[in-house]
Design a protein that fits this description.
Blueprint: H1 2-22, H2 32-51, E1 58-66, E2 73-82, H3 86-103, H4 105-135
Antiparallel strand pairs: 1-2
Length: about 140
């Protein structure tokens, strides 16, 4: 219960901060939080794809050289080869795309807040300009 309260406070703080930044005159200030969250989503996708094992199928190829005179094995070479399956690659790509989309939901929400607040701000500026023109 305490963790939920802290999570809600953090979420409310981030939303309040986004609204505050979006209302500022500098338009780039409101894009700070969405850019940070977008970079985090890219880091999530890169970390998942970096540690993803394409396939655990390994084949051991052994090459032996046998002496013809004594019939003894002279040299043995062991080579591990990974085999990649197409279905596993498609599953990996689909998972990465899904995780990228899901991790960008907060980015989209913050961008919606940004564009909504900027639209209100621009409408207020236009009304102010109209009032100034009416006074002239």
């Amino acid at each position: 219960m305490f963790n939920l309260l802290i999570l809600l406070l953090i979420l409310g703080g981030v939303i309040w901060l986004q609204i505050y930044f979006s209302k500022q005159e500098n338009k780039w200030l409101g894009l700070i939080l969405p850019i940070i969250l977008f970079l985090f989503s890219i880091m999530i996708v890169l970390s998942i794809s970096a540690f993803w094992t394409l396939t655990d199928v390994e084949t051991l190829e052994t090459t032996e050289t046998v002496s013809e005179m004594t019939n003894e094995v002279i040299v043995t070479e062991n080579t591990f080869m990974n085999q990649v399956e197409d279905s596993n690659t498609i599953q990996m790509i689909a998972t990465i795309i899904l995780i990228f989309l899901l991790s960008n939901i907060p980015t989209v929400i913050l961008l919606l807040i940004y564009f909504g607040e900027r639209k209100k701000l621009n409408k207020g500026i236009e009304l102010e300009k109209m009032n100034v023109l009416d006074l002239d």
